[in-house]
Amino acid sequence: MIELHHGFFGFSMEDDGCFSVATPYTILKNAHLEAQINQDTLRLSPHCTSSSETTAVFEEDLPQGHFTFRVSVEPEAVHLNLACALMAYPIDIKLVPLAMDKFAVDQLICQGRRMGSCFNYAFPSDKTNSIASHFYIGARVGNGHLLLSTPLRKRLHSEFSGKLAADGLADFRAFASTCHEDCLDFESGDLAITAGPDPVKLTQEWSDKHIEVKKFDPSIFACGWNSWDYYRWTITEEQILANADFIRKDLVLSKKIRRIIVDDGWQYCYGEWEPNPFFPHGMKYLADEITKMGFEPGLWMAPAVIEPHSRIAQLTPGWLAMGESGQVCLSWECMGRQAAVLDPTVPAAREHLRKLFDKYAGYGYKYFKLDFLFAALQARQYHDRTIPHTDLVRLIVKAASEGVNGRAIIMGCNYPFDAGNRYVDAVRVGSDVHAGWKDIQKNSTAISINFWGTGRHWLCDPDFALCRSFDTSDDPEINTLNPNAIFGTLMGPPLPGVAYYQQVETHLPETEVLLSLVLISGGAVNFSDRMDRLNQKGLDLARRTAGAVHGEQGIPLDLYQNTKSCTWLQKLPDGKHRILLINWGDSQKEMSFDCAAHGIRAVQAKDFWHDTALPVGNGVLKASLPPRSCLLAEL
Question: Tell me: the pLDDT tens digits for 324-383?
């Protein structure tokens, strides 16, 4: 048996290939190594070939190739890395440096690879669904915390998987994988296991360690208005200009909202980025008109998505990614639409993107929302098989960045975080949010778990700052648009929820929760209502939100205690703070925040939404919150 110990951390491997990792709070017991090559799953039992007090190397030869497992133990972490030198190019490969039948935890944080897709689970649990986490997975074990993490940028995509059980995860795997890459030498990359009493600190240290480019510029922050959530695919040139004109004439909003963003619906089709008949004067005219009003024009595109009837698909199919058969395929689907995806490994396809963004930046667009970027990863094969799949989306945003050439901000939506921060300025982190309580709850989880990004890697976009609700809008058409009505089935039962979908389901207190989350995120603030249909309550919300002091990323203090964070702390300029308390329940709740425990000296706070003074007795701010409501306080 080989044993390594250094400080509070240790590693030991038995002769049969089973190993354990000791941390201050737990031991990851009876782990083993696996490799999946094409259809074969290999249980590895490598033998030690070299060791010192803190490092060891284990090796094994199999018909598929040579496998090397490296371990190093530091005072603050254990590092695992599994590598292989194969005899032939694989179709699929998965390297598993840590596999366990059982991973017992009290709470689990699952990080998404892109916007949304984050989950927070508490145990014991009666759920049995499978989970996936990317880049890191966080766990509370008693009063301690573990973080299992990999670098944000590496050749193979990293993931943590398992199945929820009563007291944790079953069939837990930490692995790195890819498919159809012409390479013989692969490695899982560094899998770091760290532990400590403060999980926020562990995550921030991981984030800081893996910043690709230290270029974050808070000056890119600006409030905007976006057409999507109210108008969706029905948007017109006239409606864009009408909302811009309303904002321009409002004494408060005109001073705070800087961008007018034209979202999905302006184009002929995905892949054919020319205006449709609802934009009769063209996109340069629209950019010019928005600019004349004193705003910066922004534009939505989905550069990776190519619909079958577009000219690119019809005339240059060699620019498109392929299926397992080697033929172009429809690998992307969203909201009933199917499409192929652009292959960014093709130089001509990248040049097409560079020219496209050069053209629209030349028209005067200063902000580009690039959506559905994850689509580029959904094909099976690409023409240049030497380019890692983790670089595919990176090549797309690089081409856009080269076309823009410093003239515009690039925001990545549905952007895989492992594409890095070199070619994007802002990144969408929140789930799709609508004026519905379930959407707000889901989005809060994504905002809380993605707290590590803003101010470090990019400006985070928590999704829209929606002000309309049944109490804050006098819109007679508030729920006329039913975008899911067209998604019924030809045969069989109706799809669940389609007939009852509503754009708005909220009241004023729930809207305050949504907007408070936007502010506490420290990220982008983009309104997406029909502004002239907001009543005085709605306009008051919009004006307060737009005029709010922009703070740092708020910290969800109870991220590892509650499945939906109830308590947030945000630093503001000049040493001030913003505190957010949320009652997610359906009954009255007494809540409090210990200001003194966080080094905040105050005797009074201000209720942000209602301008009332709140006492801070003995250093503690107390509130009795109605169901589905919040307190956003500044002090």
Answer: 999 999 999 998 889 999 999 999 999 999 999 999 999 999 999 999 999 999 999 999
Angle at 361 between CA 358 and CA 362, to 5 degrees: 80
> What's the gap between Cα 411 and its chain centre?
12
Q: Are 83 and 185 in contact (CB under 8 A)?
A: yes
Decide if pLDDT at 11 tops 80: yes
CA 511 → CA 13, 226, 452, distances in Å?
Answer: 54, 18, 25
pTM of the predicted model as reported, rounded to 2 decimal places:
0.96
Instruction: Determine the Cα–Cα distance for residues 48 and 2; give it in Å rounded to an integer.
Output: 8
Reduced to 3 states (helix: H, G, I; strand: E, B; else coil), residue 440 is: helix
DSSP state of 375: G
- The DSSP line for 305-353 is EE-TTSHHHHH-GGGB-B-TTSSB---EEETTEEEEEB-TTSHHHHHHH
Q: Are 306 and 313 in contact (CB under 8 A)?
A: yes
Residue-averaged pLDDT of the chain: 96
What percent of the chain shows pLDDT beyond 70? 99
Q: Is 573 exposed, middle or buried (0-12, 13-18, 19+ CB in 10 A)?
A: exposed
- CB-based burial, 169-191: b 16+ in 10 Å, e otherwise: bbebbbbbbbebbeeeebbbbbb
The amino acid at 373: L
- Does the pLDDT value for residue 25 go beyond 80? yes
List, in order, residues 6 or more apart from 575 with CB less than 8 Å away.
none
Segment 428-454, tens digit of pLDDT: 999 999 999 999 999 999 999 999 998
- Quick one: DSSP state of residue 377? G
Q: Count how many Cα atoms sit within 13 Å of the Cα of residue 448 in the half-sphere of its side chain.
A: 29
Tokens (6 digits) for 334: 């969203």
